[in-house]
């Protein structure tokens, strides 16, 4: 039976849901929690809970949360860690996630027995496997951006796509399903994420020749650099790392390529777009879902008119 640990944090002085979301992001994207939630209590307090499959380190959590407290001018609050009674929490968690229909993509877990809808592109990803199961607005924004590009801008399929910070590889797999002739590269700085991505690639019947995976901190990995330039780069990370990555990312984007950035809170979208504007990108579209924004950008030399990849 799986042992689950709950980490709980109360924020009595926070009234803005955007601030709460920034704390929750630390748990979901940086501390590798299996699930997160937040709720406003009757006492007008915010209560955040994150679930882990391993004993969380309270000191590490405090270090990761400290910059968020400082950023919002809040006094630090200690987290509480509790080992939950042994139940099949993961099965219960998976059962609470129905299949999702996002554009042409149909995302489902292994607990779903229903047949995919006609003309859909099925993606098998379990919610508890890794960050990136399609349930988070940042992932949904990227999927909708890919669907939008494919539907609206004709001119042939992309030849090379990069899923940077791939996690579960849901975005890379979506690109492989949407454009079967495309060569996909998935990169992550976490070796565990790459193992999960590889398992998902196999479960979704995507050939290794179509989708390569490798450990890389940004563009430091040789395979990531050698497979470029990319017609599409997908980066669902966080606003801070995205800004720092801009100077190394843009040289790896094809002159007529597309850049999809996500993991961005609404109030961070302008500063991320400006960081890429300074290195030669132009904002093409914004997709806002709740408190999260996904940016679609292109190199300036791609021009104003919508044109996709050449057929050469």
Shape: globular
Total helical segments? 9
Number of strands: 14
Structural class: alpha/beta
Biggest sheet overview: 7 strands, mixed
- Tell me the β content: 25-35%
Order of helices and strands: EHEEHEHEEEHEHEHEHEHEHEE
> What's the Cα radius of gyration?
20 Å
Arithmetic mean of pLDDT:
84
Task: Catalogue the unreliable spans.
Answer: 307-312
Proportion in helices: 25-40%
- Report the end-to-end length measured between terminal Cα atoms: 54 Å
- The spatial strand order of the largest sheet comes to 10-9-8-11-12-14-13
Molecular structure report:
The chain has helices spanning 17-30, 58-71, 89-95, 137-152, 170-178, 191-203, 222-226, 239-249, 269-277, and strands spanning 5-11, 35-40, 46-52, 80-83, 100-102, 105-108, 121-124, 160-164, 183-188, 211-215, 230-236, 253-265, 281-289, 292-299. It is α/β, with parallel strands linked by helices. It has a 7-stranded mixed β-sheet, sandwiched between helices. It has a 4-stranded antiparallel β-sheet with strand order 2-3-1-4, with helices on one face. It starts with a strand and ends in a 13-residue tail after the last strand.
Brief summary of the model shown:
With 312 residues, the protein is α/β, with parallel strands linked by helices.
Layout of helices and strands:
Layout (H helix, E strand, L loop, with lengths): L4 E7 L5 H14 L4 E6 L5 E7 L5 H14 L8 E4 L5 H7 L4 E3 L2 E4 L12 E4 L12 H16 L7 E5 L5 H9 L4 E6 L2 H13 L7 E5 L6 H5 L3 E7 L2 H11 L3 E13 L3 H9 L3 E9 L2 E8 L13
Parallel strand pairs: 6-7, 8-9, 8-11, 9-10, 11-12
Antiparallel strand pairs: 1-3, 1-4, 2-3, 5-6, 12-14, 13-14
Helix pairs in contact: 1-2, 4-5, 8-9
